[in-house]
Amino acid sequence: AELGEVFRLQSEIAERVTTALDVALRAPERAALAAGGTRNPDAYDFYLRGNEYVGRGNERSDVLAAIDLYERAVALDSTFASAQARLARAEAAMYWFYYDHSPERLERVKRAADAALRLGSDLAEARIALGYYYYWGYLDYDRALREFETARRLQPSNSDVLGAIGYVERRRGRWDQAVARFREAIQVDPVSQQRAFDLGDTYLTLRNYPEAEKQLDRTIQLAPDWAKPYGYKAMLYLMWTGDRQRARAVIGQAMSRVSTGRLARALMTADAISASVISADSIYYPASDAVRADAFEADTGAYYLFKAEAAHYRSQRDVERAYADSARRFLQPRLLVQPDDAKRLVHYGLACARSGRTAEAVQAGRRATALLPLSADAASGPFIQTYLAQIYMLTGRLDEAVATLRPLLTFPSWITPAELTSDPLWAPLQSHPGFASLVAAAP
Predict the structure, then answer these.
(1) Which residues contact 296 (CB under 8 A, 6 or more apart)?
(2) Distance of alpha carbon 274 from alpha carbon 205, whole angstroms
(3) 331 phi, psi to nearest 5 deg
(4) Is the pLDDT of residue 25 over 70?
(5) Which DSSP string do the residues of 146-174 spell out, in sequence order?
(6) pTM to 2 decimal places
(7) DSSP-assigned states of every residue in 113-139
(8) What secondary structure does DSSP assign to 27-85, as a single string?
């Protein structure tokens, strides 16, 4: 009786909210909202707590906590379809964010998504879960979008659905559609830090810096202990005006709220150029030295690359090579299992470049861009190509580095004249005869 009263009150509150917002829910959406639930109060509590962890920003510890809570919910009620669907999405996040980028983890995603679909084929959450299986598991944007659009028909006002569609549209290079979906998602869920970050990240790549700054500030206000928005905002000032002082101020603010390790990891493991805003600034040398591998959680290769990059800016060549070789040896066996993983492959190329294995570095970088070109992925493709430019630069192939960067100046990306001239990352390239024409040719 008590649980029934809870559900009745929740339904009444939801009705009042939607009326206040003038949001008219259609009959199919009402049915979808009612489906997939549980009558077990403890299972429902675990489910809600799992949702809270997922909403924090996809840190490994949060994703693992969510998985544990969803598994508890399912153990208490095996017919709880929404919990199965959320479990599948959390398992997919483990795979996508490289906490466990293994075929076994992907199988767990599929099992949970299939279970959710068996329990509720018309449940939006189940369709979202299956969509992420295709998107995060296989980069199959067409199949993912079909599932997300089915979920949208079932629940047009679901911000997670709108965000998922925005992600896919962004990767397909349909930037206007992506922005529209992210804006719509924020209207539905204005207090979501993830939705604000999605829009800020997209505007950053589109070089709409005033809007990007606005949304990243909003993200930081909503989630002041989330590292990634600070790193992106610091890079924004390098890209926008080349203002290293403003970038430094953002990093200083971040370090008063999050650890240097989490900040470095956010830049080294996301789609980002490098952690130069931290590692190249002498003010942060002590903080960089204090970073330990556990701050990078499961991504030890990214930790070694961060340490190698930090050593590079201090001209500690032996230290740089040692860390880079450690990164190479960490990544090599993983590439044997998944040789077509473009992101790991290009990181392997960087590790080879910094450890003096020139031919191997160039081969890995070129193969990575062939696997994930701009035409195949408008969101991650530019970063893969940027890494190839770094590999060329680090191995002394400056002509090829300039040629690789040139198209990125006219394509949505993080490469701008201000970034190229202000970021210490590109210092070896700035004396090259083609650099001036590269920067001058930008629109």
Answers:
(1) 261, 264, 265, 268, 269, 302, 303, 306
(2) 15
(3) -80, -30
(4) no
(5) HHHHHHHHH-TT-HHHHHHHHHHHHHTT-
(6) 0.89
(7) HHHHHHH-TT-HHHHHHHHHHHHHHH-
(8) HHHHHHHHTT--S-HHHHHHHHHHHHHHTTT--HHHHHHHHHHHHHHHHH-TT-HHHHH
